[in-house]
Amino acid sequence: MSTRRYEIRVAGLLSARSRAAFPDMTVADAPPETVISGEILDDSHLHGVLALLRSMGLRVVSMHEVGRDLRPQDPIHDDR
User: Fold this and answer.
1) What angle do CA 63, 17, 23 make, to 5 degrees?
2) Distance between CA 13 and CA 35 in Å, rounded?
3) 72 cis-preceded (ω within 30 degrees of 0)
4) Predicted confidence (pLDDT) per residue in 25-75, tens digit
5) What are the two backbone dihedrals, phi and then psi, of residue 25, each rounded to the nearest 5 degrees?
6) In angstroms, how far is CA 57 from the centroid of its own chain?
7) Contact 2, 70 (CB under 8 A)
8) Domains contained in the chain, CATH given
């Protein structure tokens, strides 16, 4: 399965308690914003992260895909 890496910027700086809501993601200060980045498994996971941000009252400034976790495919066999 190929995951997607996203960077989400929210307005303001997050408290330690708010940061703890994203245990599988990297949370970094970039005053006057906070950058939350990490691997997103699928669209459902992405919508869940966005719903969490909304429920916390955080304003998303920007969101974009920054790269992919590209894993090697199974080798192709030539059966000639």
Assistant:
1) 60
2) 9
3) no
4) 999 999 999 999 999 999 999 999 999 999 999 999 999 999 754 444 444
5) -125, 160
6) 18
7) yes
8) 3-66 (3.30.70.1150)
